[in-house]
Design brief:
The chain is mainly alpha-helical. The protein contains eight helices and four strands, in the order αααββαααββαα.
């Protein structure tokens, strides 16, 4: 038993000695978001530009399974625009009368179809890495919107003392700093319909607005309800205090 313990300790030491150094993750700076704070609201123009970024760049690899086309009305799109957007996608449906699946144009009630038919196809197309679904990424990642924004803008050349694994990219804000996703955004990768300069930071900010809405579409309604509840409680507290003064006034 003593020999086994010595062998195990030696193996552990060798393993630690050969393990690559893990650099500390960069602290996420706080970005200025219009939806922050109790009075915060979404910026519709940024959301629509962010949807354009998702549609033209991110959707090639990442799904948005929890969002239906009709939900785009929250971003300011009208019914005709939503129908046109939905029809630009091919959606699998069925089975038909013969028991076969078929493909048709999307309709507003459909959800965004995934870019790959299954997980194996997604991994095969991405060097073994599985692109995450972006529906809830703004809530499922520590730091939320700040994490998304800084991840998209955090690609850089690795420090001299960092040995990169094959097929990986250095990102200052990704845990471990080595990420399989190539830099998805760069200046001018999208031509905005409203003429806004498509710089890297503008693209990252806009798509973060869109993904934050996708993860929390009721954010504005929740905040409005919260303010109404607080106002009600303040008024109710004042009434209770007035009643208390009235009831106990004769006892003083």
């Amino acid at each position: 038993m003593k020999k086994l313990a010595i062998i195990a300790a030696a193996a552990a030491f060798l393993g630690l000695a050969q393990a690559p150094e893990v650099r500390a993750q960069e602290e996420l700076p706080s970005h200025d978001w219009s939806f922050s704070g109790i009075f915060g609201t979404f910026d519709r123009a940024k959301q629509q530009r962010g949807f354009q970024v998702y549609r033209e760049v991110c959707s090639a690899c990442h799904s948005l399974r929890q969002v239906a086309f009709r939900n785009l009305s929250d971003l300011g799109y009208n019914e005709d625009e939503i129908r046109a957007i939905a029809a630009s996608y091919q959606v699998e449906d069925g089975p038909d009368d013969n028991g076969d699946m078929f493909v048709r144009d999307g309709i507003p009630s459909d959800r965004f179809p995934p870019p790959f038919p299954n997980e194996n196809a997604a991994r095969a197309a991405n060097g073994g890495a599985l692109p995450v679904d972006l529906s809830l990424v703004a809530k499922s990642r520590m730091g939320g919107p700040d994490y998304i924004y800084h991840l998209l803008t955090g690609y850089q050349d690795p420090p001299p003392d960092v040995e990169m694994m094959e097929g990986m990219y250095y990102n200052a804000y990704f845990p471990g700093h080595q990420i399989a996703m190539a830099p998805p955004l760069m200046d001018g990768v999208v031509t905005y319909a409203d003429g806004t300069p498509a710089t890297l930071h503008q693209l990252a900010e806009d798509v973060t607005y869109f993904l934050t809405w996708a993860a929390e579409p009721n954010l504005e309604a929740r905040k409005r309800m919260g303010m109404k509840v607080i106002l009600f409680l303040l008024i109710f507290t004042g009434l209770l205090y007035a009643v208390k003064r009235k009831v106990w006034a004769n006892l003083h």
